[in-house]
Amino acid sequence: MSNFTNFRILAPLVYQRSSLSVYFGTVANQEDFADAEDECMRIGGHLPSISNAFENAVVQNAVQKQLGTNFGGKIIIGYSNLINKGFSWSDGNPSTYTNWAPGEPVTAVVGVAWMDFLTGWWNTAAPFATSHFICALPSYRISC
């Protein structure tokens, strides 16, 4: 489990989902799916759920800004078939959009979704494989 020494909140990339703004923070440490979701929940968020092409691009852009495009690689998103027979989001949001790469998802085995943050395509990975990840953090309106 990471200690968040390399955790960064990316405030400029904010978008509205329903009536809530969502901030993204990337973690330079690498974790597996379960530990990444646990870390996000520990700070009040989740691995991102993506409900349309715009949100996919926002997540992709957030990671590129945080980790750079020269880094390459994939990040863990909150989509898996660990609990259900089909894929579902770890935060409980409905599964209405996917952006699988050609030939994906591999559904013969239990897996989690990773986003290639250079292309935005999703691939399946083993649940215990480690990678960088991003947390979706809600912003709360503060009243005085």
TrEMBL record:
Domain C-type lectin intervals: 17-136
Annotated InterPro entries: C-type_lectin-like, C-type_lectin-like/link_sf, C-type_lectin/snaclec_domain, CTDL_fold
Highest taxon above the source species: Eukaryota
PANTHER family: MANNOSE, PHOSPHOLIPASE, LECTIN RECEPTOR RELATED
Protein name stated in the entry: C-type lectin domain-containing protein
Phylogenetic lineage: Eukaryota, Metazoa, Ecdysozoa, Nematoda, Chromadorea
